[in-house]
Amino acid sequence: MMAQLTGNCNEMEAKMSRPVQAQRLEGLDKNVWVEFVKLAATYPTVNLGQGFPDFSPPDFVKEAFVKAVSGENAMLHQYTRVFGHPALVTILARFFGKLLGQDIDPLTNVMVTVGAYEALFCCFQALVDSGDEVIIIEPYFDCYEPMVKMAGGTPVFIPLRPKTPAPGKLMSSGDWQLDPAELASKFTRRTKAIVLNSPNNPLGKVFSKKEMEIIADLCVKHDVLCFSDEVYEWLVYDGKKHIRIASLPGMWDRTITIGSAGKTFSATGWKVGWMFGPDHLVKHLRTVHQNCVYHCPTAAQEAVAQGFQREFEHYGKPESYFVQLPQELQQKRDRLVQSLLAVGMKPIIPEGTYFLIADLSDFKAEVPNLPDCEEPYDSRFIKWMIKNKGLAAIPVSAFYSTAQKRNFDHLIRFCFVKEEATLKAAEDILQQWKLKKTGP
Ligand code: PMP
User: Fold this and answer.
1) Which residues form the Aminotransferase class I/classII large domain (predicted)?
2) What 3-state class would DSSP assign to 355?
3) Domain 59-314 - what CATH class?
């Protein structure tokens, strides 16, 4: 069937007298998730690749979803308000208004989207024009680059630069920092926006208040917008604090803050996301949303609204999911750190997120480097690891611009937000690997 479909498509293309692909898609067809998710599904693997929990969301949101679909209210099966289900935008405005110390109007400052992905897409489509530059901090969640390009903009990259950790200490994501002078040099007359992702995927870096102030001062000085992707806002470890850049002086008026129920309530498949910001920006995102997705599934929004209502009531208390989840995940992180250290991969300890990056430099003997090979080393290494060890991860070079890929292709990203049994299975694979390498 598949072959038949492909055959028909090729036939169609052959019949067309002009190119079928819109020019703005040129060079954007490759996608790391499509490639590695497929590979992990093809071989029997312990999948620490794509970022999703393999455990259930908390009971209170599952029960709210069940109630939404099986309860009396028939309207929860129908279209809801185009820019967000009233119950959800109301509680999001209340919740984040309190955290930011900012009046947030549910109807004009908040919009619900199909996951954080759609919120990001709306930002670029609504606010980036042809010729505009958008600053992206490397390593970055890979979709920022194609989204800027699809809007006609030009991505301008600035790397986080790793410092050597103190002797005897493991490297931390906090050792990766921006050079303030280099950052300042990236702001030009054409700069329209900067994308900030804290906690950062894939590194797990949680930007400090001081680092955010440097970014905020540059945004204000150069009249630049900030798209702040905060999907991992609750997943911060070791007592670190998540700072919301929109709360810094002069930033509310120029920031769109993006969140995801997928990460917030461990329900990535529900695809409920949101954004909030000043109406003079959000109104343009509404234009994009009403002309593509229109509105989002009602029952899932109702369940997320109930979840936030519950968290509002328990905010900061030991029974809050936003307090409990990071505590559990920190233990999972530490467990994977130990397993990786035991086999000789050097982990970079993440201060937040679902992810942990490990350095493969000592593994070059297992999969020899081929200097002339076009494919980055980490990508080849993971393909080998999936096929030969049954363990899946994601190559970190996928989170870098073309110019930098080669400089960071000795790193791979693991997701540790997994059941005990999954982490144990990964541990066993690593243990066997170590025995093979060093002998019993
Ligand atoms: N931003 C970042 C940094 C992410 O890691 C992800 C998901 N991996 C998203 C946005 C997209 O989130 P959602 O699943 O809610 O669309």
Assistant:
1) 45-427
2) strand
3) alpha beta
Give me the CATH code for the 27-57+320-438 domain, please.
3.90.1150.10
pTM of whole model > 0.85?
Answer: yes
Mean pLDDT of 86-102: 97
Burial of 373 (C-beta count, 10 Å sphere; 0-12/13-18/19+): exposed
Give residue 3's pLDDT band: very low, low, confident or very high (50, 70, 90). Answer: very low
If one counts every other C-beta atom within 10 angstroms of the C-beta of residue 221, the result is 11
From the CB of 229, is ligand 1 less than 6 Å away? Answer: yes
Evaluate if residue 2 carries a pLDDT over 60: no
Q: Where in the chain is the domain with CATH 3.90.1150.10?
A: 27-57+320-438
Cβ count within 10 A of residue 283? 12
Q: Is the CB of 84 under 6 A from ligand 1?
A: no
Asked if residue 392 has its Cβ within 6 Å of ligand 1, the reply is: no
Chain segment 5-61, per-residue pLDDT in tens: 555 555 555 677 888 999 889 999 888 888 888 888 898 899 999 899 999 999 999
Q: Cα–Cα distances in Å, from 284 out to 145, 149, 287, 340?
A: 21, 19, 5, 46
Decide: 200 in ligand 1 pocket, CB within 6 A: no
Two structure tokens written together for 417: 């937000």
Contacts of 85 (CB under 8 A, 6+ apart): 112, 296, 298, 301, 302, 305
The residues of the chain that CATH labels 3.40.640.10 are 59-314
